[in-house]
Design goal:
Blueprint (H helix, E strand, L loop, with lengths): L2 E5 L8 H11 L6 E5 L1 H11 L3 H10 L7 E2 L7 E2 L3 H8 L12 E7 L4 E5 L5 H7 L9 E3 L2 E5 L17 E5 L13 H15 L2 H5 L3 E3 L15 H13 L2 H11 L1
Parallel strand pairs: 1-2, 1-9, 2-5, 9-10
Antiparallel strand pairs: 3-4, 5-6, 5-8, 7-8
Helix pairs in contact: 1-3, 1-8
Length: 255
């Protein structure tokens, strides 16, 4: 049985992908296709390149990513992300989809043409950065004279990208919604609105996953909680461990 893995966006909460992925690997899962949006594109590309979940966590904890982001002197965003190209080329030196150990599909929003873009061949680093270019925060990212922003604008769970290539789809979604968390700030209003807008377009895709992993505890975190990386990793890992019987049945049926 061929397994495909789909990774959602979610800002810092995407770090939980790593904990979930570690738990899945320990239970015997292996993947022949990967697809990701935004944070899921970053995690997926690094994993497809051969890094382990623990190694990616270490990269996140020890790399000063803020040094590779600069102010944007335009009206299209507050920051520019293009300087991060150098950093990601150090982490992904081949800078090529074809060089990855597992086929990877990166989703971004083509703002110029108003369509979803799926990158899976040629250069790797720039599509990954385009996929996580959050509109309003980052200036749109230019590739071949087209402006790109975060893939979550149109598709935060790109299940259909791998659906015809695998037998079983595992989805990791890191944006659980809960009404229990009170809203007390403009930032909270904006974040809740964004989650609702993205989730409304994601429901059908979540239902297409044969196995959906969505750690409910992630609702305690926001998309900017980068300093809580290890805690986010732990939440994903412990949640996956709690599903061991279910995961074992999936692996047994695949044999």
């Amino acid at each position: 049985m061929k397994f495909g893995l789909v990774l959602s966006g979610g800002g810092a909460r995407g770090i939980a992908h790593l904990g979930v992925l570690k738990g899945l690997l320990e239970e015997g899962f292996g993947f022949s296709q990967l697809a990701g949006t935004s944070a899921g594109a970053i995690v997926g590309a690094l994993f497809a390149n051969g890094y382990t979940p623990d190694e990616i966590l270490e990269i996140i904890e020890t790399t000063p990513f803020y040094r590779h982001i600069r102010p944007a002197f335009t009206r299209m965003g507050l920051l520019r992300i293009d300087r991060a190209e150098e950093l990601y080329r150090q982490l992904l030196p081949h800078d090529s989809f074809e060089a990855l150990r597992i086929p990877m599909h990166v989703v971004a929003t083509n703002l110029t043409d108003g369509v979803l873009a799926v990158f899976d061949s040629g250069e790797l680093v720039r599509p990954v950065l385009a996929s996580c270019c959050l509109p309003g925060i980052f200036e749109p990212y230019m590739i071949n004279k087209r402006q790109y922003v975060d893939g979550a604008v149109l598709n935060n769970m790109p299940v259909e990208v791998v659906a015809d290539k695998v037998d079983f789809i595992v989805g990791i979604h890191c944006n659980p919604f809960t009404t229990q968390k009170p809203i007390t700030s403009i930032k909270g209003v904006l974040e809740r609105s964004l989650v609702l807008a993205v989730r409304s377009k994601t429901k059908e895709r979540l239902a297409q996953c044969h196995l959906l992993l969505e750690p409910p505890e992630l609702s305690r975190f926001d998309v900017f909680d980068w300093r809580r990386a290890r805690e986010l990793f732990r939440v994903g890992y412990q949640y996956t461990q709690s599903l061991k019987p279910q995961l074992a049945r999936v692996i047994e049926s695949a044999l």
